[in-house]
Design brief:
alpha/beta, globular, about 15% strand, three-stranded antiparallel β-sheet
Amino acid sequence: MTQPDIQDVALIVGGGPGISASCARLFANNGMRVAVAARTPDKPVLQALEEKHGVRRYACDAADPASVAQLFQSVGRDLGAPTLVVHNIDGRVPGIFRKGITEAQPEDAFATLRNAAFSAFLVGQQAALAMRENRPNANGARGTIIFTNASAALKGFPASGAFAMACHAKSGLAQSMARELMPQGIHVANVPIDAAIGWTQQDGSRAHRRAGTTVDDNMADPAHIAETYLQLHRQHRSTWAFEIVLRPWLEKW
């Protein structure tokens, strides 16, 4: 891995307590200027990141083109042009969970596709516009774009058609962007997480809102996911990884 020769600016789009918060902490602790964008930037977890790690908070509807364009303008003005962008948005709306193909409401399916895949397109587009103007670092890289994905990117599960559609779309977007942008010095990576993600709770346990409390590392640890993202960003361009699938050691797949 190569170390940056200029201070990195990281933008994380999606503001939850799991991967996004873990990435923000790790990136800030590694000397990056860090911004986190969310529809609700006043969440306690984001306020804590600002107070403890100096992370800048921004309001953004990632499925709205004007909002995403404004986000990148604001981050560029306040912190500098991003060199690392993480799109970390699940995108599912409450009504779409565990709905079979004959039960899912079309508006919920469309909202899921818009929140997940279309937002990935918008963020990826603005990231590419910003990064292609960056001065190459010592590794010849202008920046890194990482898309968090899910196991639905690899296989469509029953009663999950809308999410599978959105995840497959993100994979296709990432693959197209990688082929287009990597020769221009912009590293693009797709990271399907084949697991429930258990983040640290106030009582010190790791848990997931649907899957319960972790036992024997049976859930993915977002702190270690963040480490993988940092490693991706620091990879030498002679061996850039496009897709890394992460799953716990005892996950069935």
